[in-house]
Design a protein that fits this description.
Helix 11 runs parallel beside helix 13 and helix 11 runs parallel beside helix 14. The two termini are about 20 Å apart. A hairpin with a 4-residue loop joins strand 9 and strand 10. The protein folds into two domains: about 160 residues, Alpha-Beta Complex (Spore Coat Polysaccharide Biosynthesis Protein SpsA, Chain A); about 220 residues, Four Helix Bundle (Hemerythrin (Met), subunit A) (Up-down Bundle). The strands form three sheets. It has a seven-stranded mixed β-sheet with strand order 3-2-1-4-7-6-8. A two-stranded antiparallel sheet has the order 5-11. By secondary structure, the chain is of the alpha/beta class. Helix content is about 55%, strand content about 10%.
């Protein structure tokens, strides 16, 4: 899925005229998941509606901080103004003379997109500061001038509360911002981290990757191919290959498994299906880490890939019945029960989201735990693969049908229980917020 978090897709009224990035430190040019922290900020700002960014670089950081991916100009319409500062005093002097509202960011910082969204949504006069001192501000012109004059005279190692009060700034920590990301079903505190000038980047690297992974996933994705997808994504981040290419490969592979199942080539079929599943995971991570996002391709992927699992079931049933699926006995009956349970489960979980404003999979810890083994695409494909490997496809297909039916029953019971135990006010609030 390529589309960004629906909360951070755009700010209703950005309010900032432009952004300043202080990239005078050498760490601003270090490479993380295919680009520098500076370019990552530029892309996030452009996604949020800003069209002008001033990047202050030093002689030390000029070459590395100005390294930009070739696809930046193609993807984002943003005016970039690189300025060389002979010293931080020059930057502070320039800040003391600004005449427009602006966002002020640290070029060595990696910011969770929710932090930038918060600054733009709240309007000028707000800031976010991590406990380690990594900061981001949305300043009115007079606040920018006041901060610039202070910085010209002295450093601010403690970022005193009195200064922010004098400037009329409201400062928050990342922990005070929204922790839930609806599009990823992920609960995770927003982060602002400073990239070190040298040394290991693995902890930051891991945090950034974790931010792209869905919070509620099945056991196969969590324990099976998690590290494989991470390795593939890392290699692809260094290339110019687009996430859209892997979306297409994923859809073609998922659909390509269908004729294999019909013809009885189940070994080839499950291999092609797994390739589609892997690419389906890679494309979203690559898109989020490289900020190469496409709503149109995300919609296409959702519509095109959604019928895949149902078609795998139908194709397998077609082969097991010798093409006589209309005979309502034997494997034909198993196939129709499986398809009916699959479709009803989709309706149940989709209806729950419409009514309660949240996915049933992550409504409570119990639901998230069950989703680890629920009869979704990966779990069903794993059962079929096991059947192919041991030469027992028929029992594996029957197991998929039984487990899909059990999953439907569990979801219906949870739907009913939650509906009966939630108050009318809670349901109304959920619907209003959905």
């Amino acid at each position: 899925m390529h589309s960004p978090d629906d909360r951070t897709k755009s700010a209703d009224d950005p309010g900032a005229g432009y952004a300043w990035i202080n990239a005078t430190g050498s760490a601003a040019g270090r490479w993380l998941w295919g680009m520098t922290p500076v370019e990552r900020q530029i892309r996030e700002l452009a996604r949020l509606g800003l069209s002008r960014v001033v990047i202050w670089v030093s002689e030390e950081s000029a070459d590395s901080a100005q390294r930009l991916r070739e696809d930046l100009r193609r993807l984002y319409q943003v005016d970039l103004d690189f300025r060389i500062a002979t010293g931080t005093e020059q930057l502070f002097s320039a800040l003391a003379e600004v005449e427009e509202d602006l966002l002020l960011l640290e070029g060595e910082g990696v910011y969770d997109e929710r932090i930038l969204f918060h600054l733009l949504r709240q309007g000028s006069g707000v800031g976010v500061m991590d406990r380690e001192g990594v900061s981001a501000f949305h300043l009115r012109a007079d606040q920018a001038r006041g901060l610039g004059r202070v910085l010209e005279r002295e450093e601010l190692p403690e970022r005193t509360a009195s200064l922010w009060a004098d400037l009329g700034m409201e400062i928050r920590t990342p922990d005070e911002l929204e922790h839930y990301v609806p599009s990823l079903r992920l609960t995770m505190s927003p982060f602002a981290i400073r990239v070190p000038a040298e040394g290991d980047l693995r902890s930051i690297d891991h945090l950034m990757y974790r931010r792209t992974f869905k919070g509620v996933i099945d056991a196969v994705a969590r324990y099976g191919y998690y590290h494989l997808v991470r390795w593939l994504t890392r290699q692809l981040c260094r290339t110019e290959l687009t996430p859209n290419l892997f979306t297409l490969l994923s859809v073609f592979s998922i659909w390509g498994a269908v004729p294999c199942f019909v013809a009885g080539h189940f070994g080839v079929g499950v291999l092609v299906a797994w390739i589609g599943v892997i690419f389906d995971s890679v494309d979203g991570k690559l898109a989020r880490l490289r900020l190469h996002l496409s709503d149109a391709m995300g919609t296409f992927e959702h519509i095109a890939a959604m019928p895949g699992l149902g078609l795998w079931y139908a194709a397998t049933g077609w082969h097991l019945t010798g093409g006589e699926l209309l005979r309502l006995d034997g494997w034909a009956l198993v196939t129709w029960v499986l398809l009916a349970a699959f479709l009803l489960d989709k309706c149940a979980t989709g209806g729950f989201k419409v009514i309660f404003g949240k996915e049933l999979f992550d409504y409570r810890p119990l639901d998230a735990a069950f989703h680890l083994v629920a009869a979704r695409r990966n779990i069903s494909l794993a059962l079929m693969t096991l059947g192919v490997l041991v030469g027992r496809l028929e029992p594996a297909f029957a197991a998929v049908a039984v487990w899909t039916l059990a999953t439907l029953v569990f979801h219906l019971l949870r739907f009913a229980w939650i509906g009966l135990t939630r108050s009318e006010e809670e349901v109304s609030a959920a619907v209003a917020g959905s």
